[in-house]
Amino acid sequence: MDELELEAQGRKRRKGREAGTSRNPRSRQSKTEEERQRRAAEAKKREEERQERRRREEDQRSDPEPPPTTPEPDGREGGEDESDHPKKRKRPASTPFYPDPDNEAFLWAIQSEAVKHREKIPATAVIRLALRRLRDQKTPAEIVQELGGPVQTNGKMGRPRR
Questions:
Q1: Strand runs (DSSP E) across 93-140, as ranges?
Q2: Torsion 9-10-11-14 (CA) sign
Q3: With the CA atoms of 131, 137, 139 and 145 taken in that order, what torsion angle do they form, in degrees rounded to the nearest 10?
Q4: Tens digits of per-residue pLDDT, 45-55?
Q5: What angle do CA 34, 38, 40 make, to 5 degrees?
Q6: Per-residue pLDDT tens digits for 67-102
Q7: Quick one: how far is CA 74 from the chain centroid?
Q8: Beta bridge partners of residue 71, listed in sequence order
Q9: Which end of the chain has fewer beta carbons closer than 10 Å to its terminal beta carbon, N or C?
């Protein structure tokens, strides 16, 4: 095995490069210190712009009044933790969505129409649009009144016996 390694290193030396160096010609080009400093400054500037943009988006999304605090079961007050940044809002808990066959077919129809127009529209965007329209049309009390009441079940409950 050692003979093979020595032979390979000899071939590399004959080709004009030392053993253990990269074959990529760009990596051989030495970058000047000024160029490195310039790139570092540009990267820092881009990062500052991203942070400023995030800060502005959070300010636009944040409510003018803090949410009311409610006592937690362990005795401390709810709301934001003391360790969190005061302007940072917690992400709401994820809500699973299980469409019934009709809604699923409708989502597929939307997706196929989007493909025809070379667009990519995820199902979550469709659901957000539907919720916005529902919010504009009805109050939460009207939605509860319409959806509330006894649960409708079709057929038998539970696991069938053998």
A1: none
A2: positive
A3: -90
A4: 889 988 888 88
A5: 115
A6: 555 555 555 455 545 555 566 778 778 888 888 999
A7: 32
A8: 77
A9: C
